[in-house]
Specification:
Distance between the termini of chain A: 25 Å
Protein name (chain B): Spermidine/putrescine transport system ATP-binding protein
Largest sheet of chain B: 6 strands, mixed
CATH class of the largest domain in chain B: Alpha Beta
Shape of chain A: globular
CATH superfamily of chain A: MetI-like
Number of strands of chain B: 19
Number of strands of chain A: 0
Strand content of chain A: under 5%
Helix content of chain A: over 70%
Number of domains of chain B: 2
Strand content of chain B: 35-45%
Helix content of chain B: 10-25%
Keywords (chain B): ATP-binding, Nucleotide-binding, Transport
Oligomer: heterodimer
Shape of chain B: elongated
Mean pLDDT of chain A: 89
InterPro entries (chain B): AAA+_ATPase, ABC_SmlMolc_Importer, ABC_transporter-like_ATP-bd, ABC_transporter-like_CS, Mo/tungstate-bd_C_term_dom, P-loop_NTPase, Transp-assoc_OB_typ2
Structural class of chain A: mainly alpha
Distance between the termini of chain B: 44 Å
Largest interface: A-B, 17 and 27 residues
GO molecular function, one term (chain B): ATP hydrolysis activity
Strand order of the largest sheet of chain B: 6-7-8-3-9-10
Low-confidence stretches of chain A: none
CATH topology of the largest domain in chain B: Rossmann fold
Family (chain B): Belongs to the ABC transporter superfamily.
Chain lengths: 293, 355
């Protein structure tokens, strides 16, 4: 603060700090606090709001545990998001390694550009594009049946569609942390391991992956959180059998008209995702400091 | 066990740039062999060709008589010590040393035993559980050597591994490296731009310039009888007196220089009328009653010797190192003195093709 006012002068510094404070309080803290408040109150008709029944309790948070269907969808969401994360990692790892350690700088720049350009288009539009590609009478099925790879078209909508759509949507969130982490690896380390007789697989297992672990963790956490909180992809490319937990939250808000329960579900999703990530980080021996690095 | 390395007409081109130009060479089993040259002369490229990180554009690399084309770095009987050592920072010292053994499928206890053995060899017992970051520069150096020796290579390749150390440690490591080489009997191939390192440690040295080998020989041989102007200038300090061959036979040549007619050994087969340079080491110039007339410009008293920088006829620079035998002449700055050398201790060579 003192540094800021020395650089900018008192009034401007005060203005900048005020702007940040207003932004944080009004647009971040307040809505969240409001939702917490909602989640702790019962859903009452307008006339009873503020009445004797309008008391804070954890009742809304208990609902999920007694609803077998919602609980099933919740765990399915966690499981499917984990799968999305793993597939995204598997797809992005070779790309990131190529970008960071194999490609000439000029080629790498071109490749990054090619990766980024599709993301200039809105996510919903890109998901619609997949909606068309994966349609029952769509181009993918036509090509695959036309080439004789499949006898008849497949229904892609559902789990397969959601996987494809999400892996595609989150590629950049995985590629960049991985590339960043790998770039700092000394090329000589790879050469030294190779010189000592290590196979390609062992070089990755013992040298590259341990070095890139913080990047891998960052990419996985981002992808997992985005996947678990995604709404557009599952609602467009999914099917009733692949319902996402976010769709249930949406329903509480906009179809059930029960904001209180919706807010409680949303916070449960957030909390349980954080717990899940914490457990995973402990399991893979990654610390928070690694990720912040 | 050790094996020899043969380079047979090896060339390496990167686009239009020739890094290694038609090099043929035999490195004997158990030898301490150095490639000496300025940076960019192709010595590191040669090391990478021997280790298998790259394949020559043309020619053959043979190790122990076997053609190595198509054999990857992980399959060759060589081990390399990198300039920055490239120790694995996320592994302990023992894991580093045993990495090559892990690759070969040795059990954990066996690996640990071998690592401890090697730590004894490099005189660092009991540090196996330390992290690499906790080690000093010299300790890291030795751990890198142990890691390379763990895979029992027949040829050890060293890429200027001492360049990051301070002077004192560097001198200590020279003796250490030489001792380890003697103890293990492994062929050492050493890359350096530091002539001191090359001369003190090596059995033989190859002097390189611009992708070509200028001369191969024992350190003393190269110092006493350089075969090219580059070798004469790069290895040790020397005076260069350019001129034209006045007369020459198979033994000696007489060169007309600005300092007058000088006699020197004719090692390059010079004949009359050719351009030539007479090379004389500073310590071979002696004060005399006749000889080259030199005006003293600078004088440094070093105790056991005195170093004189002067100017001959037409400003030709002359450096002399005169032993202090108790009868030093009076060499005041600005005064004139005469220096001479024995013709058998000077060589006449063709001038270097490029400057």
């Amino acid at each position: 603060m003192a540094e800021l006012s020395r650089r900018l002068g008192g009034p401007i510094a005060a203005l900048a700090v005020a702007a940040v404070a207003i932004w944080l309080v009004l647009l971040v803290a307040l809505p969240d606090l409001l939702m917490i408040d909602y989640s702790l109150r019962p859903n009452l008709p307008p006339s009873e709001i503020g009445g004797p029944q309008d008391v804070h309790s954890l009742a809304n948070y208990a609902v999920l545990w007694s609803n077998k269907i919602h609980l099933g969808i919740f765990f399915r969401t966690i499981w499917a998001s984990s799968l999305v994360t793993v597939i995204t990692l598997v797809v992005c790892y070779p790309v990131a390694f190529y970008l960071a350690k194999v490609a000439k700088p000029s080629n790498a720049a071109l490749l990054v550009l090619l990766l980024i350009i599709p993301f200039w288009i809105n996510e919903i539009l890109r998901t619609f594009a997949w909606y068309i590609v994966l349609a029952y009478n769509g181009p993918l099925n036509r090509v695959l049946t036309g080439l004789g790879i499949m006898a008849r078209p497949i229904r892609w909508y559902g789990t397969a569609g959601v996987m494809v759509g999400m892996v595609y949507a989150y590629i950049l969130f995985m590629v960049f942390p991985l590339t960043n982490a790998m770039e700092s690896l000394d090329r000589n380390q790879i050469d030294a391991a190779r010189d000592l007789g290590a196979s390609r697989w062992r070089i990755h297992r013992r040298i590259v992956i341990p070095h890139a672990k913080p990047g891998i963790a960052t990419g996985c956490v981002m992808t997992f959180m985005l996947a678990a909180g995604s709404y557009a992809v599952p609602s467009l490319l999914g099917s009733p059998s692949s319902r996402w937990f976010t769709e249930i939250i949406y329903n509480w808000f906009f179809e059930g008209g029960n904001w209180n329960l919706g807010a409680a579900y949303a916070f449960l999703l957030l909390l349980l995702c954080i717990v899940f990530i914490a457990v995973m980080m402990r399991l893979f021996r990654v610390s928070l400091a690694d990720i912040a690095r | 066990m050790s094996q020899g390395v043969t380079l047979d007409r090896v060339s390496m081109r990167f686009g239009s740039f020739t890094a290694v130009d038609d090099v043929s060479l035999d490195i004997r089993p158990g030898e301490f062999f150095s490639f000496l040259g300025p940076s960019g002369c192709g010595k590191t490229t040669i090391l990478r060709l021997i280790s298998g990180f790259s394949e020559p554009t043309s020619g053959q690399v043979l190790i122990g008589g076997k053609d190595m084309r198509g054999v990857g770095a992980n399959k060759r009987p060589t081990a390399m010590i990198f300039q920055n050592l490239a120790l694995f920072p996320l592994m302990s010292v023992a894991e580093n040393i045993a990495f090559g053994l892990e690759v070969r499928g040795l059990s954990r206890t066996e690996r640990r035993r071998k690592a401890d053995e090697l730590l004894d060899l490099i005189a660092l017992p009991g540090i196996g559980d330390r992290a690499v970051a906790e080690l000093s520069g010299g300790q890291r150096q030795r751990v890198a050597i142990a890691r390379a020796l763990a895979v029992e290579p027949t040829v050890l390749l060293l890429d200027e591994p001492l360049s990051a150390l301070d002077l004192k440690l560097r001198q200590h490591m020279r003796t250490e490296l030489r001792a380890i080489q003697k103890r293990t009997g492994v062929t050492f191939i050493y890359i350096t731009h530091d002539q001191g390192e090359a001369l003190t440690m090596s059995d033989r040295v190859a002097v390189m310039s611009q992708g070509r080998i200028e001369q191969v020989g024992a350190p003393q041989e190269i110092y006493e009888s350089p075969e090219t102007a580059f070798a004469a200038g790069f290895v040790g300090e020397t005076n260069a007196f350019p001129g034209i061959v006045h007369a020459a036979d198979s033994e000696m040549a007489v060169i007309d220089t600005k300092l007058g007619q000088l006699r020197a050994r004719n090692c390059a087969g010079l004949s009359g009328g050719e351009a030539a340079v007479v090379f004389v080491r500073p310590e071979r110039l002696l004060p005399a009653d006749d000889g080259i007339l030199v005006r003293v410009r600078e004088k440094t008293f070093e105790g056991s010797f005195i170093r004189v920088v002067g100017e001959g006829q037409d400003g030709v620079p002359v450096v002399a190192q005169i032993t202090n035998a108790g009868d030093l002449p009076d060499l005041r700055i600005g005064s004139e003195t005469r220096l001479r050398f024995h013709p058998r201790q000077a060589v006449a060579l063709r001038p270097a093709p490029h400057g």
